[in-house]
Write a structure and sequence with these properties.
D-amino Acid Aminotransferase, Chain A, domain 2; ten-stranded mixed sheet; D-amino Acid Aminotransferase, Chain A, domain 1; five-stranded antiparallel sheet; single chain; 15 strands; about 270 residues
Length: about 270
């Protein structure tokens, strides 16, 4: 079962087309890091000039209530703030079963391709805001699929790898986790932030530095992180095998540690 609220929505006009959204993951009926997701949603609204609901706590309760009423235990919960001229933005909530990557992806890793499609430049609209316009991501996925790849990687005008269409990207190199810095123009991923916490706990250096395709091709391991993927190994990039061509021990350890942290925080057994 899925839930859509409200059941009927308005068609946005030019004057109210600056909406933003947030995607969350629920484990056994509990939203993981709801507070962090609301922080990012309200930050996106502030950047876009969207008038977010004043009662943030009430919005959080709406989300948890919608999840409970949907009856979906393992769910993706999405909220979009649709601007209403002269009023607070109207939250539109969708709850549906979480579309997980196939289990084989975690066993073998995925293949990705760098693509010519780009998002808006940082100078125009920063990707740190989750705005509603997704054309760049749609074109990137289409490009990757035409090459029989699982996902796409964006490369900016300066030649730096930034992120995927809906995931952050990182590599293991020289004994450290390396991931592009936010100032290059990428979304501040919730899972990416959790990964920084985990690496600090296990004593693995976490470095935010620009990465080129050369760096990515020569990584010992590579992976993507996102709300839906968690931590997913990348084993081929542009036809180059990464490391052994299988999910590496550090990526597997990070996935296990992430899932253990989720269970602790949500008190799941």
């Amino acid at each position: 079962m899925s839930l859509v609220e409200p059941a009927v929505g308005r068609v946005p006009t030019e004057a109210v087309s600056h909406g933003c959204f947030e995607t969350m993951r629920a484990y056994r009926g509990n939203i993981f890091r709801l507070g962090d997701h609301l922080d990012r949603l309200y930050a996106s609204a502030q950047f876009l000039g969207t008038r977010a609901p004043a009662d943030r706590a009430a919005l959080g309760r709406k989300l948890t209530s919608a999840l409970a009423r949907s009856g979906v235990r393992e769910a993706v919960v999405r909220v979009a703030l649709i601007p209403v001229a002269g009023h607070e933005a109207q939250p539109h909530i969708v709850v549906r079963p979480v579309p997980l990557p196939p289990s084989s992806a975690y066993r073998t890793g995925i293949k990705v391709a760098t693509v010519p499609a780009r998002k808006f430049s940082v100078a125009s609209i920063t990707p740190q805001a989750k705005y509603s316009a997704r054309l760049g991501s749609v074109l990137a996925v289409e490009d990757a699929q035409l090459r029989h790849m699982d996902e796409a990687l964006f490369v900016d005008a300066g030649g730096s790898v930034t992120e995927s269409t809906a995931s952050n990207f990182g590599i293991l190199r020289h004994g450290a986790i390396q991931t592009p810095p936010m100032w290059l123009g990428l979304l501040a991923g919730i899972t990416r932030d959790v990964l920084a916490e985990i690496t600090a706990e296990i004593g693995l250096p976490f470095q935010q530095i620009p990465l080129t395709r050369h760096d990515a091709y020569n990584a010992d391991e590579a992976f993507m992180t996102s709300t839906l993927k968690e931590v997913l190994a990348v084993t081929w990039i542009d036809g180059r095998r990464i490391g052994t061509g299988r999910p590496g021990p550090v990526t597997r350890r990070l996935l296990q540690a992430f899932r253990a942290l989720v269970r602790r925080e949500l008190r799941l057994r």
